[in-house]
Amino acid sequence: VLRPSPLRIETLLERVLLMLDPVAGQRGIRLVRNFAPGLPALVADADLLSRAVENLVSNAFKYSPEGTEVAVSTSSDDASVSIQVADQGYGVPEADLARIFEKFYRVPRVEDAGVAGTGLGLSLVREIADLHGGSVMVRSEVNAGSTFTLVLPRSA
Q1: Whose CB among 16, 19, 24, 95 lies 3.0–4.6 Å from 31's, allowing a Cys bridge?
Q2: Could you tell me if 148 and 85 are in contact, meaning their C-beta atoms sit under 8 angstroms apart?
Q3: Nearest 5°: phi and psi at 151?
Q4: How far apart are the C-alpha atoms of 90 and 145, rounded to whole Å?
Q5: CA distance 18 to 112
Q6: Cβ atoms of residues 136 and 151 within 8 Å
C-alpha cells in the first residue's frame, strides 16, 4: 500500500547512502554521488522508495569486486525523474537479463555460491516502481558492470 507524500529525491538518496557508506567502506568500494541540480519534488512513498534504492545499491556492493566504485546518479526530464545505480561488477549474462526481476531468481554463478540472498530484492524494486507508475530497467555487460535505472513519473 502506497503512502505518498511530497519528497526531494536527493534528500532521500543521501539518507539511504549515508546508511550504506560504512558497508561500502568495509567492502573496499567507493560510493559516488552524481545528483543532477534542480530535481523536481516528487509525490511518492519515501519508505518504499528508500527500500528500492537500498536494494539496488546493496546488490551493486554484493556483486562488485573490492577496489571498484558504485555510482548513484539522478536525472530528470519533463515527464520523469530517474535514479541510476551503476557498478563495475561482474555483470549479468544476456541470457539472464530477462529473468532477473522475477521472484526468487538468482543468476547462477559458482562464484556467488556464498553470497547471501533470496532472489527477492530486484522483484521488490520492480514492484515498488510499478506501484509508483514507474519502471526499472537494466543494462549489463559481463565483467564490466551493470546499470540499473529506476524511473519515476514527475506527477502521480
Answers
A1: 24
A2: yes
A3: -110, 125
A4: 6
A5: 26
A6: yes
